[in-house]
UniProtKB/TrEMBL annotation:
Name of this chain's protein: Amine oxidase
Species: Durio zibethinus
Keywords, alphabetical: Copper, Disulfide bond, Metal-binding, Oxidoreductase, Signal, TPQ
Domain Copper amine oxidase catalytic, residue spans: 248-653
Subunit structure, as described in the record: Homodimer.
Superkingdom of origin: Eukaryota
Modified how: Topaquinone (TPQ) is generated by copper-dependent autoxidation of a specific tyrosyl residue.
Underlying gene: LOC111279729
Length: 669
């Protein structure tokens, strides 16, 4: 892995690493390097030299080796790793073709035409080309003139159209346009009343309707750039003290990160963004690393808006399967997105022409010192002694930000010395709005599907559902899900004045149907255990799911967007490991019909007891916008945690050493 050094503000040091080891043999789970992407491009283009039609690369990613092959190599890393292969999805002759390219053989070893429902990941290039058509379309230009707007201030973007029961579909996108003229906050100035569709195969406007002239929200108050803001200002904050140059508490070898008692591999994918693999934790008692998580990533993000009008009903996005978290990952800003002790990683994906596209500083890794307490105790009853032990909390964070249209998603994986892994997402950016004639809620006499947050501006109600793929291997790959139900019981001993107590009853999920869980209905703890490994007292080693708020879908089950997003019907699912089942919304999500989703896979009701299993967790937000979300939304965060449960013989942070501190004078007011 190559590295360079940049000296930043306050003499802070930022290390930049690249997800592209060039001079050494790659790890089997390394992302494809720029040279490998170029090799894939050459192999595919050479195979279709005779074609007169344009070939486009819709997705290129690592064709993940089978898990046994990876684990076999890990046990003997001096041997040759599994062959490097790429999964390639192309469009050619108005067909979707799925290829497996073997890089060592320099050939396509598998090719099939996809004839099912749905279309592949959209490329950035075709979306930009579709949006540009509007500004050359004379009926649209006439509509802009009719509204008295300056076409040079108009910006357009694309939206997917979904599926609403049609027997036949075409590869199409909707185009929506916005007006700048005094702001760069384009999403807050939508040009309403126009419906426009683009046929992507022919790259031409297939439908154009100017329904009505709607009011245009004002630019006033929408500015968010620090250089453009005027007084009165908000509070100022002191920056965090910089880390001394060269001091990071972790090491990176290739794409493997080692920190404290953790070791894991990090990758980057055009569709899902960060991929964390082979997370293992060192057990000081056993003097070895123990497996926790084989592979994890955000499998899908479903965002349905709640305005069932002619121009809004289709606004239901699948951000991973339609647009790609990796495609829309943004460069992180040192000291603002990430602290001074961060290490930055560059990422690469294949553009529409197959050439590698670099995203600088796409991922950062840093130690987090939140000022919290990891553990403490004071022996207050021992009056002749002062005994107090405190250890500060610390974590290692892996972060990426994807800006998909109006929303910025801050994606964090945090590893704790206690053995916990925290998964968190922060939602910020700009809310989607509808232009209306109202300036005060007393004027509203109809349903407007959102909140009036400024003059002529309704922020639409919507949801965010993020489904995580968590291939856990708790101390090995034979695992089970145990539902520890909390049950109230009556006291039967008449001599005891208490009338009730609660206890636990354990239930092992034997099939996929047993593991479909809607959280919040009944009190329970969910633990993934290895039934073949026990602690000295006899408990099964495991990891417990500590869920976030219990949020589920509110759409009707027969509504078309919900049919496509049926993987959100439950907060928790468990499936047997299957390398091909990694994208909860299906492989081809654009205009999909819900026939290839997590919800469909589990209908086979396969056995999951004492098997290699995958845990799926859906984190949800119901967003009722408010005025504080205008003109840019303060970050709304949520998450969940995986916590060791009878995994260690005793607390893994018992023997952590307290940090050494400088002597500080007593402070008085």
């Amino acid at each position: 892995m190559a590295s360079t050094l940049n000296v930043g503000l306050f003499f802070s040091v930022f290390f930049i690493f690249f997800l592209s080891p060039i001079n050494s043999k790659p790890h089997p789970l390394d992302s494809l390097t720029p040279s490998e992407l170029l090799k894939v491009r050459a192999i595919v283009n050479h195979s279709y030299l005779s074609s007169n039609n344009k070939l486009t690369f819709q997705y290129v990613g690592l064709e993940e080796p089978e898990k046994p092959a990876v684990k076999s190599w890990l046990s003997k890393p001096t041997t040759n790793p599994p062959p490097r292969q790429a999964l390639v999805v192309i469009r050619l002759n108005q067909q979707t073709r799925e290829l497996i390219v073997d890089l060592s053989k320099r050939s396509i070893i598998s090719e099939k035409v996809y004839n099912g429902f749905g279309y592949p990941l959209l490329t950035i290039e075709e979306q930009e080309a579709a949006a540009d058509l509007a500004l050359k379309h004379e009926p649209f230009l006439a509509s802009i003139r009719k509204r008295g707007l300056n076409v040079s201030e108009v910006v357009c973007s694309t939206q997917t159209i979904g599926w609403y029961g049609e027997e036949k579909t075409k590869r199409e996108l909707k185009v929506s346009c916005y007006y700048l003229n005094g702001t760069v906050n384009m999403y807050l100035r939508p040009i309403e009343g126009i419906s426009m569709s683009v046929n992507l195969e022919e790259m031409k406007i297939s439908e154009y309707i100017d329904r009505a002239v709607a009011p245009l929200p004002k630019a006033e108050g929408t500015e968010y750039r620090a250089s453009k803001l005027t007084s009165p200002f908000g509070p100022s904050f002191n920056a965090a003290p910089p880390t001394p140059p060269g001091q990071t508490g972790f090491k990176i070898d290739g794409n493997t990160v080692s920190w404290a008692n953790w070791k894991f591999h990090i990758g980057f994918d055009a569709r899902v963004g960060p991929v964390i693999s082979l997370a293992s934790i060192y057990d000081a008692e056993m003097k070895k690393y123990r497996q926790v998580m084989y592979r994890s990533f955000i499998s899908e993000l479903f965002v349905p808006y709640q305005a069932p009008t002619e121009e809004w009903y289709h606004v239901t996005f699948f951000d991973c399967g339609e647009f790609g978290f990796g495609f829309y990952a943004v460069s992180l800003e040192p000291l603002n997105d990430c602290p001074s002790n961060a290490v930055f990683i560059d990422g690469y994906y294949a553009g529409q022409d197959g050439k590698p596209v670099k995203v600088s500083n796409v991922i950062c890794i840093f130690e987090r010192h939140p000022g919290d307490v990891m553990w403490r105790h004071t022996e207050s009853e021992l009056r002749d002694q002062e005994i107090r032990e405190v250890r500060p909390e610390i974590g290692l964070v892996v972060r990426m930000v994807a800006t998909v249209g109006n929303y910025d998603y801050i994606l964090d994986w945090e590893f704790k010395p206690s053995g916990s892994i925290k998964f968190e997402v922060g939602l910020t950016g700009v809310v989607e709005v509808m232009a209306v004639p109202y300036t005060h809620i007393d004027q509203i006499k109809e349903e407007v599907y959102g909140t009036l947050i400024a003059d002529n501006t309704i922020a639409i109600h919507h949801d965010h559902f993020l489904t995580y793929h968590l291939d856990l291997d708790i101390d090995g790959d034979s695992n089970s899900l145990v539902k520890t139900n909390l049950v109230t019981k009556r006291v039967t001993d008449k001599n005891i004045p208490r009338k009730s107590y609660w206890t636990v009853e354990h239930e092992i999920a034997k099939t996929e149907a047993d593991a479909r869980i809607k959280l919040g209905l009944n009190p329970a703890e969910l633990v993934v255990v290895n039934p073949n490994k026990r602690t000295k007292p006899g408990n099964k080693v495991g990891y417990r799911l500590l869920p976030g708020p219990a949020v589920g879908p509110l759409l009707a089950a027969d509504d078309y967007p919900q049919i496509r997003a049926a993987f959100t019907n439950y907060n928790v699912w468990v499936t047997p490991y299957n390398k091909s089942e990694k994208w909860a919304g299906g492989r081809y999500v654009d205009q999909s019909r819900g026939d290839d989703t997590l919800a469909v896979w589990t209908n086979r009701n396969r056995r999951i007891e004492n098997r290699d299993i995958v845990l799926w967790y859906t984190l949800g937000f119901h967003h009722v916008p408010c005025q504080e979300d205008f003109p840019v939304m303060p970050t709304l965060s949520g998450g969940f945690e995986l916590k060791p449960t009878n995994f260690f013989e005793y607390s893994p942070v018992l023997k952590t050493k307290p940090p050494h501190h400088l002597s500080w004078p007593n402070c008085t007011a």
